[in-house]
Automatic annotation (TrEMBL):
InterPro entries: DUF1541. Gene3D superfamilies: Domain of unknown function DUF1541. Residues 70-121, 136-185 form the DUF1541 domain. This is DUF1541 domain-containing protein. Keywords: Signal. Pfam families: DUF1541. PROSITE patterns: PROKAR_LIPOPROTEIN. It comes from Lysinibacillus pakistanensis. Residues 1-21 form the signal peptide.
């Protein structure tokens, strides 16, 4: 009788430990996977057109007295993508506008893009007056990333600021980026 009870207790202990370890692994891997997806969705700008033609919307107003005038240089303090943060930027254009952080589903398919910086008010199709409220949905004609043009974007945040078009050399691979759209005044600092 003692052997059976001892065997039964050992068996229950092993089963309990296996169940607990299975739950623990599931929770940890589920959390890690969720975090990886969140990071990739929020931070992956691999489909972003780093350089552009330099064309700007007709209605966009040139800043009269920007902190960083055209032709000056500054250091990028916030990297929307790899190789930006810490790079030296040459200011190509400075414009007063409302800049938006947006989330959207690419029209070409694929994962939803969360918290993309930046789309400006003049890149929205038939918007109400700026600034638009958070959670407003509107279409954009911006083409910074594959699948962005004609996408319906959700406004996550609006910032009235000066935005800059910049040239810079990526700190990671030495890629020369021309007419990058956009960085805000808060994302630049004097050399």
């Amino acid at each position: 009788m003692k052997i059976k009870r001892s065997w039964y207790i050992s068996f229950l202990t092993v089963i309990t430990l296996l169940a607990l370890s299975a739950c623990s692994d599931k929770t940890e891997s589920g959390t890690k996977k969720d975090n990886d997806i969140e990071q990739n969705t929020k931070m992956n700008h691999s489909t972003m057109d780093h350089s552009s033609s330099g064309e700007v919307p007709v209605a966009l107003k040139t800043a009269i007295n920007p902190k960083f005038p055209v032709g000056s240089t500054a250091i990028i303090t916030d990297g929307h993508m790899e190789g930006m943060e810490g790079a030296k930027a040459t200011i190509v254009g400075a414009y007063d506008t409302t800049a938006y952080i947006v989330s959207y589903n690419p029209v070409t398919g694929g994962q939803r893009v969360e918290n993309h910086k930046w789309v400006i008010h003049e890149e929205l199709i038939n918007p109400d007056l700026a600034p638009l409220a958070s959670s407003t949905e509107v279409k954009t004609n911006a083409s910074h990333m594959t699948g962005m043009e004609n996408a319906t974007v959700r406004i996550d945040k609006a910032v009235q600021t000066t935005v800059y078009m910049i040239d810079y050399t990526a700190t990671t691979n030495g890629e020369s980026v021309k007419n990058h759209k956009w960085v805000t005044e808060d994302e630049l600092k004097a050399e």
